Amino acid sequence: MVNTGMQLISFTCAVTGWIMAIAVTALPQWKVSAFIGSNILTSEIKWEGIWMNCIYQTTGHMQCKTYDSMLALPPDIQAARALMCLAIFMGWLSCTVSCCGMKCTTCAGDDRRAKAGIALAGGVLFILTGLCVLIPVSWTANTVIQDFYNPNVPLMHKRELGQAIYLGWASAVILMISGAVLSSTCPLMERSGRYRRGYIGRSFANSPASALDPPKPITSNSVPLKEYV
Protein backbone atom coordinates (compact mmCIF):
# COMPACT_ATOMS: atom_id res chain seq x y z
CA MET A 1 0.00 0.00 0.00
CA VAL A 2 2.84 2.40 0.77
CA ASN A 3 4.53 1.81 -2.59
CA THR A 4 1.20 2.21 -4.38
CA GLY A 5 0.58 5.55 -2.67
CA MET A 6 4.08 6.77 -3.49
CA GLN A 7 3.62 5.73 -7.11
CA LEU A 8 0.38 7.69 -7.37
CA ILE A 9 1.89 10.80 -5.77
CA SER A 10 5.05 10.71 -7.90
CA PHE A 11 3.04 10.04 -11.07
CA THR A 12 0.72 12.98 -10.33
CA CYS A 13 3.69 15.28 -9.72
CA ALA A 14 5.36 14.07 -12.91
CA VAL A 15 2.24 14.79 -14.97
CA THR A 16 2.10 18.25 -13.39
CA GLY A 17 5.72 18.86 -14.37
CA TRP A 18 4.98 17.70 -17.90
CA ILE A 19 2.05 20.14 -18.19
CA MET A 20 4.34 22.90 -16.90
CA ALA A 21 6.86 21.99 -19.62
CA ILE A 22 4.13 22.38 -22.25
CA ALA A 23 3.32 25.82 -20.83
CA VAL A 24 7.00 26.80 -20.89
CA THR A 25 7.20 25.82 -24.56
CA ALA A 26 4.21 27.99 -25.48
CA LEU A 27 4.98 31.04 -23.31
CA PRO A 28 6.87 33.95 -24.91
CA GLN A 29 8.39 35.18 -21.62
CA TRP A 30 11.79 33.55 -22.06
CA LYS A 31 13.54 36.91 -22.37
CA VAL A 32 12.13 40.17 -21.00
CA SER A 33 13.19 43.76 -21.63
CA ALA A 34 15.73 45.04 -19.11
CA PHE A 35 14.95 48.42 -17.57
CA ILE A 36 18.41 49.80 -16.92
CA GLY A 37 20.14 53.09 -17.56
CA SER A 38 17.88 55.80 -18.89
CA ASN A 39 15.10 53.35 -19.81
CA ILE A 40 13.54 53.32 -16.37
CA LEU A 41 10.09 54.40 -17.50
CA THR A 42 8.73 52.80 -20.64
CA SER A 43 5.31 52.32 -22.12
CA GLU A 44 5.97 48.87 -23.53
CA ILE A 45 7.59 45.59 -22.53
CA LYS A 46 9.15 43.26 -25.04
CA TRP A 47 8.99 39.49 -24.60
CA GLU A 48 11.04 37.01 -26.58
CA GLY A 49 10.14 33.33 -26.69
CA ILE A 50 11.23 30.40 -28.80
CA TRP A 51 8.32 30.76 -31.21
CA MET A 52 7.40 34.46 -31.25
CA ASN A 53 8.12 37.99 -30.04
CA CYS A 54 5.49 39.95 -28.16
CA ILE A 55 5.20 43.62 -27.26
CA TYR A 56 2.99 44.35 -24.27
CA GLN A 57 1.87 47.93 -23.78
CA THR A 58 0.80 49.52 -20.54
CA THR A 59 -2.61 50.19 -22.04
CA GLY A 60 -3.26 46.44 -22.04
CA HIS A 61 -2.72 45.78 -25.73
CA MET A 62 -0.33 43.05 -26.82
CA GLN A 63 1.00 42.28 -30.27
CA CYS A 64 2.82 39.06 -31.11
CA LYS A 65 4.69 38.01 -34.21
CA THR A 66 6.17 34.63 -35.01
CA TYR A 67 9.71 34.32 -36.29
CA ASP A 68 9.95 34.55 -40.06
CA SER A 69 12.93 32.25 -40.57
CA MET A 70 14.03 29.35 -38.40
CA LEU A 71 17.57 29.25 -39.80
CA ALA A 72 18.13 32.89 -38.90
CA LEU A 73 17.47 32.23 -35.21
CA PRO A 74 20.28 32.03 -32.63
CA PRO A 75 21.59 28.54 -31.78
CA ASP A 76 20.08 28.58 -28.29
CA ILE A 77 16.58 29.24 -29.68
CA GLN A 78 16.92 26.49 -32.28
CA ALA A 79 18.15 24.00 -29.68
CA ALA A 80 15.39 25.07 -27.30
CA ARG A 81 12.75 24.37 -29.92
CA ALA A 82 14.05 20.89 -30.66
CA LEU A 83 14.62 19.88 -27.03
CA MET A 84 11.29 21.23 -25.77
CA CYS A 85 9.39 19.38 -28.50
CA LEU A 86 11.35 16.26 -27.62
CA ALA A 87 10.54 16.78 -23.94
CA ILE A 88 6.81 17.03 -24.68
CA PHE A 89 6.89 13.79 -26.67
CA MET A 90 8.96 11.97 -24.05
CA GLY A 91 6.63 13.23 -21.33
CA TRP A 92 3.65 11.74 -23.13
CA LEU A 93 5.55 8.48 -23.60
CA SER A 94 6.55 8.47 -19.93
CA CYS A 95 2.94 8.89 -18.80
CA THR A 96 1.82 6.01 -21.02
CA VAL A 97 4.57 3.65 -19.88
CA SER A 98 4.19 4.55 -16.21
CA CYS A 99 0.44 3.92 -16.30
CA CYS A 100 1.08 0.40 -17.57
CA GLY A 101 3.62 -0.34 -14.83
CA MET A 102 1.81 1.03 -11.78
CA LYS A 103 0.44 -1.38 -9.21
CA CYS A 104 -3.05 0.10 -9.35
CA THR A 105 -3.44 -0.87 -13.03
CA THR A 106 -4.01 -4.26 -14.63
CA CYS A 107 -2.14 -3.72 -17.89
CA ALA A 108 0.52 -6.38 -17.24
CA GLY A 109 -1.73 -8.71 -15.27
CA ASP A 110 -0.30 -10.27 -12.12
CA ASP A 111 3.27 -10.43 -13.41
CA ARG A 112 5.10 -8.36 -10.81
CA ARG A 113 8.40 -8.74 -12.58
CA ALA A 114 7.04 -7.22 -15.80
CA LYS A 115 5.21 -4.41 -13.99
CA ALA A 116 8.36 -3.51 -12.05
CA GLY A 117 10.37 -3.26 -15.26
CA ILE A 118 7.71 -1.12 -16.96
CA ALA A 119 7.44 1.24 -13.98
CA LEU A 120 11.22 1.55 -13.82
CA ALA A 121 11.33 2.43 -17.52
CA GLY A 122 8.64 5.07 -16.98
CA GLY A 123 10.60 6.65 -14.14
CA VAL A 124 13.77 6.79 -16.23
CA LEU A 125 11.84 8.41 -19.09
CA PHE A 126 10.54 11.07 -16.71
CA ILE A 127 14.11 11.82 -15.63
CA LEU A 128 15.20 12.15 -19.26
CA THR A 129 12.23 14.43 -19.90
CA GLY A 130 13.38 16.67 -17.06
CA LEU A 131 16.87 16.82 -18.55
CA CYS A 132 15.43 17.78 -21.95
CA VAL A 133 13.65 20.70 -20.25
CA LEU A 134 16.61 21.70 -18.08
CA ILE A 135 19.16 21.96 -20.91
CA PRO A 136 17.45 24.61 -23.12
CA VAL A 137 16.20 26.63 -20.16
CA SER A 138 19.66 26.80 -18.58
CA TRP A 139 21.30 27.49 -21.95
CA THR A 140 18.98 30.43 -22.61
CA ALA A 141 19.48 31.75 -19.08
CA ASN A 142 23.26 31.60 -19.53
CA THR A 143 23.01 33.51 -22.81
CA VAL A 144 20.83 36.21 -21.25
CA ILE A 145 23.19 36.66 -18.29
CA GLN A 146 26.29 36.84 -20.50
CA ASP A 147 24.69 39.46 -22.77
CA PHE A 148 23.49 41.44 -19.77
CA TYR A 149 27.00 41.83 -18.34
CA ASN A 150 28.65 42.24 -21.72
CA PRO A 151 29.64 45.92 -22.14
CA ASN A 152 29.66 45.59 -25.93
CA VAL A 153 25.92 44.87 -26.04
CA PRO A 154 23.81 48.05 -26.26
CA LEU A 155 21.44 48.79 -23.40
CA MET A 156 18.38 48.53 -25.62
CA HIS A 157 19.33 44.93 -26.55
CA LYS A 158 19.94 43.70 -23.02
CA ARG A 159 17.39 41.25 -21.66
CA GLU A 160 16.50 39.72 -18.32
CA LEU A 161 15.25 36.28 -17.34
CA GLY A 162 11.55 35.87 -17.96
CA GLN A 163 8.90 33.93 -16.09
CA ALA A 164 9.19 30.98 -18.48
CA ILE A 165 12.80 30.37 -17.39
CA TYR A 166 11.86 29.98 -13.74
CA LEU A 167 8.84 27.87 -14.64
CA GLY A 168 11.09 25.66 -16.76
CA TRP A 169 13.52 25.12 -13.89
CA ALA A 170 10.65 24.16 -11.60
CA SER A 171 9.27 21.79 -14.23
CA ALA A 172 12.64 20.09 -14.73
CA VAL A 173 13.16 19.59 -10.98
CA ILE A 174 9.66 18.18 -10.50
CA LEU A 175 10.06 15.78 -13.43
CA MET A 176 13.44 14.45 -12.30
CA ILE A 177 12.48 14.05 -8.65
CA SER A 178 9.18 12.38 -9.54
CA GLY A 179 10.93 10.03 -11.95
CA ALA A 180 13.51 9.09 -9.32
CA VAL A 181 10.80 8.41 -6.72
CA LEU A 182 8.76 6.40 -9.22
CA SER A 183 11.81 4.29 -10.06
CA SER A 184 12.66 3.71 -6.39
CA THR A 185 9.15 2.46 -5.56
CA CYS A 186 9.48 -0.46 -7.95
CA PRO A 187 9.85 -3.76 -6.07
CA LEU A 188 13.03 -5.71 -6.54
CA MET A 189 12.75 -8.29 -9.24
CA GLU A 190 12.49 -11.74 -7.76
CA ARG A 191 15.37 -14.03 -8.40
CA SER A 192 14.70 -17.33 -10.02
CA GLY A 193 16.93 -19.18 -7.59
CA ARG A 194 15.42 -18.01 -4.36
CA TYR A 195 15.22 -20.34 -1.35
CA ARG A 196 12.89 -20.80 1.54
CA ARG A 197 13.76 -20.29 5.12
CA GLY A 198 13.75 -23.09 7.61
CA TYR A 199 13.91 -26.80 6.99
CA ILE A 200 14.74 -27.72 3.43
CA GLY A 201 13.04 -30.95 2.74
CA ARG A 202 9.60 -32.31 2.35
CA SER A 203 6.94 -29.79 3.31
CA PHE A 204 3.95 -31.10 5.20
CA ALA A 205 2.23 -27.75 5.58
CA ASN A 206 0.29 -27.89 2.32
CA SER A 207 0.10 -31.66 1.94
CA PRO A 208 -3.41 -33.14 2.12
CA ALA A 209 -4.37 -34.76 5.36
CA SER A 210 -4.24 -38.52 5.06
CA ALA A 211 -6.28 -40.98 7.05
CA LEU A 212 -4.47 -42.31 10.09
CA ASP A 213 -3.72 -46.00 10.11
CA PRO A 214 -5.28 -47.94 12.95
CA PRO A 215 -2.89 -48.90 15.74
CA LYS A 216 -1.25 -52.25 15.41
CA PRO A 217 -0.41 -54.50 18.33
CA ILE A 218 3.24 -54.87 19.20
CA THR A 219 4.41 -58.30 18.33
CA SER A 220 7.48 -60.23 19.19
CA ASN A 221 8.36 -63.33 17.18
CA SER A 222 4.84 -63.21 15.67
CA VAL A 223 3.33 -63.62 19.13
CA PRO A 224 1.20 -60.71 20.37
CA LEU A 225 2.25 -59.28 23.68
CA LYS A 226 -0.17 -58.59 26.46
CA GLU A 227 -1.18 -55.02 26.74
CA TYR A 228 -0.84 -53.33 30.09
CA VAL A 229 -2.67 -50.23 31.12
Automatic annotation (TrEMBL):
- What compartments host this protein? Cell junction, Tight junction; Cell membrane
Region feature (Disordered): 209-229
Query: Which cellular component appears as one GO term in the record?
Result: bicellular tight junction
* Transmembrane residue ranges: 7-27, 79-104, 116-139, 164-189
Task: Name the UniProt key words of this record, in alphabetical order.
Answer: Cell junction, Cell membrane, Membrane, Tight junction, Transmembrane, Transmembrane helix
Bilayer topology: Multi-pass membrane protein
Q: Name one Pfam family in it.
A: PMP22_Claudin
Chief location? other
| Protein's UniProt keywords contain Ribonucleoprotein | no
Q: Does the keyword Membrane apply?
A: yes
Q: Which GO terms describe its molecular function?
A: structural molecule activity
Query: What's this protein's family per the entry?
Result: Belongs to the claudin family.
PANTHER family documented for this protein:
CLAUDIN (PTHR12002)
What is the protein name given in its UniProt record?
Claudin-4
Source organism phylogeny: Eukaryota, Metazoa, Chordata, Craniata, Vertebrata
